[in-house]
Design goal:
Blueprint: E1 9-11, E2 18-25, E3 28-33, E4 40-43, H1 44-52
Antiparallel strand pairs: 1-2, 2-3, 3-4
């Protein structure tokens, strides 16, 4: 989450390094990543596939108060 409440910045948990912006890709949340002249979106499923390989499945369990 961002340092500012109204920001869509995505930050690492430990050192608060910005790695993207929270956006929607269709109706799915995604991260807008990359340098200013070469941006792309990355969904959770795409990120998990890059980490664990093809065929990985992600299951999202939102909190009850969401």
């Amino acid at each position: 989450m961002s340092r500012k409440k109204n920001s869509n910045a995505l930050l690492t948990k430990e050192k608060q390094v910005k790695f993207g912006e929270k956006v929607l890709k269709g109706n799915e949340p995604a991260a807008l990543v990359g340098p200013s002249n070469n941006k792309d979106t990355l969904t959770l499923n795409e990120f998990a596939e890059q980490l664990y390989g093809p065929g990985v499945q992600c299951v999202i369990v939102p909190p009850k108060n969401a």
